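Note on ligand handling. Small-molecule inputs were canonicalized before submission; formal charges were left as drawn, and no protonation-state enumeration was performed. Where a ligand contained multiple stereocentres, the stereochemistry in the source SMILES was retained. For 2-oxoglutaric acid, this procedure yielded the string shown in the input block below.
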Amino acid sequence: MKDEQVLERSPLVLDQRSRERYFEDGFLVVPGYVGTAWLDRLRAVVAAKIEESRAVSASDDQFDLAPDHSAEKPNIRRLRKAVDQHPELWAFAHDPSVVDLVADLLGPDVRFHSSKLNFKWSDGGDAVQWHQDIPAWPHTSFSVLTFGVYLDDTRSEQGPLVALPGTHRGTLFEQFDDAGRWTGALSARDVATLPTDRVAEMCGPAGTVVMIHCRVVHASSVNNSARFRPLLLNVYSAADTLPITPAPSPTKRTGVLVRGQEPLHVHWDPYEGRLPPRWDQVGYRSIFAAQSAARPAEVTAAGYPPP
Ligand SMILES: O=C(O)CCC(=O)C(=O)O
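Structure output:
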């Protein structure tokens, strides 16, 4: 379904202006959307996973751990394949309150793609450099978005998500270095072409939802605060928009229809894009691992590549 067709349908949750803003900017913040009941359930999972991580000393299929992680002082960068790690996370991913909100931006038929929970630990939790999401998991069209929910109040000093408004309508960047290695980030050369003086910060109280278009250039800086910044991120596509390469972190639920009906036709929006590595052959750990392995020297104190 094309963006205009999505906008012609009556909204379920959002007002029409908010939907239009999403298509104009490439992201949308919905402050405090997820209520206390769900937040309590999700935070209970976070607490349980932190306890479980104490027995783990190296990153595995579930935990992406920071180098200084220990039993005494856990430091989890990411819970991988989140919906596979706890039934509550899958229950949330297809809860009507979530998929109805997603349907306001993708259309009534929605497919689940993947999920993760980024912790961004206190006192130095990693930056994420400027990147677009779709180069890691190309689809037949751009009707793909990430639904993120902050599980705690999130302020500027905690390294919230930031985006460059309108960049989802611009260049599709290749996220490889000059030697052909996947970096998961834009090169400094490409960043220099972007209006990085127009950064929009996505903060909000616990339960705030951020919806990120798969092409919008976004990032987040180091968490310099004493509080971590747990952010659950689930990716959805319009049901008629299909992945054209293996997912980096496929879950048991990847490809499941979570709302509406199976389509009869595919939505193609042809574009030339560089193919990502064959994740099913080379494996994928996380954006933190890819970005820090590739270009650590280019991360500035603010967490973004230098202009
Ligand atoms: O957790 C963050 O701050 C950024 C996450 C992100 O953009 C990603 O994982 O693609």
